[in-house]
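Quick start: what a row looks like.
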Amino acid sequence: MGVLQVNANDENGVLCGNWSGDYSDGTPPVHWTGSLAILQEYHKSRKPVCYGQCWVFSGVLTTVMRCLGIPTRSVTNFCSAHDTQGNLTIDIYLDQRGQRLDITTDSIW
C-alpha cells in the first residue's frame, strides 16, 4: 500500500520517476539529499514531485513507513540489472572478437 502512495507514475502518489536524463521541468534525482524536502513539497503543492529514481523512492518510502511506526530500512546494492525479456537472465551478446552486440536492451549498472 505504501508503495502505491509514493509512486506517482502509476497511482498519483508523492514522486514521479524519470530515467530519461531530462529533468528540465523538475529536480534531478541526484539533487535530493533527503525525503523531508520531497514530502514537504508534495504536502504544499498537493501534486507529485518531479523527479526520483529507485534510491529516492526507497528513501521516501522508508521515511513514510517510519512515520507510521513501522520499523523500516532501505536496502541497496552495488550492481543492479534490468531484464527486458522476462526470462530471468541478463543477456549479453558478443561477436567473434568479443565486442558487445546491441541486440538486447538488458542492462547492468
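That is the whole record. The mean pLDDT is 87. DSSP finds four helices and six strands in the chain.
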